[in-house]
Amino acid sequence: MSRFIPEILRTEWERYIVLPAPSPLPETISARVAWWEVKAADFPILLLTFLFCYELLFFFFRCPRPACHVERAFSLLGHILTHARLNMSAETLRHLAIMYVNKMDKKRKYEEEE
Predict the structure, then answer these.
(1) Residues 6+ apart with CB under 8 A from 32
(2) Pairwise CA distance, residues 104 & 108, whole Å
(3) How confident is the model at residue 7, as a pLDDT?
(4) Rounded distance between C-alpha atoms, residue 66 and residue 52, angstroms
(5) Do residues 100 and 75 lie in contact, with contact meaning Cβ atoms separated by under 8 Å?
(6) Is there a contact between 76 and 101 (Cβ–Cβ < 8 Å)?
(7) Among candidate residues 1, 15, 3, the one with its CA nearest the CA of residue 46
(8) How many CB atoms sit inside 10 A of residue 1's CB?
(9) What gap in Å lies between CA 44 and CA 51, rounded to an integer?
(10) Contact, 1 vs 10, CB < 8 A?
(11) pLDDT tens digits, residue range 67-90?
(12) What's the pTM value of the predicted model, to 2 decimals?
């Protein structure tokens, strides 16, 4: 294992990996959780490390994926910021994008009324 892993965690990991597998293997998640609840007192650092990693992964996978409106915004900015307009300031670009979006919203509302 890496030299960056604290010694106490390394020791707990080495004790954990030599444990015999439960027989029969727990098939349901609740049975696995029950097995860990029994073993949690023997491996407190390993359990805390696992829970931290679980929370971290849960946070990252729960983050929203890029939506199509974000892709449309980048596409819009690509159409506005052409080679002829490369000297445009960020504020001007933002104002043009807002004007374009408002124009499209009004166009959609007009089409819905018809």
Answers:
(1) 26
(2) 6
(3) 81
(4) 25
(5) no
(6) yes
(7) 15
(8) 8
(9) 11
(10) yes
(11) 666 677 777 777 777 777 778 787
(12) 0.40
AA letter at 23? S
Q: Which residues contact 46 (CB under 8 A, 6 or more apart)?
A: 9, 12, 13, 16
| pLDDT tens per residue, range 6-55 | 787 788 888 888 888 777 777 887 888 788 788 888 888 887 887 787 77
Assess contact for 47 and 53: CB atoms under 8 A: no
> What distance in Å separates the CA atoms of residue 16 and residue 41, rounded to the nearest whole number?
12
Residue type at position 113: E
Distance CA 91, CA 96 (A): 9
CB-CB neighbours of 47 under 10 Å: 17
d(CA 68, CA 70): 5
Both structure tokens of 7:
């010694």
> For residue 5, what are the CA distances in angstroms to 16, 41, 47, 78, 95?
15, 21, 15, 46, 51
Band of pLDDT at residue 108, cut at 50, 70 and 90: confident
Q: Largest Cα–Cα distance of the chain, in whole Å? A: 73
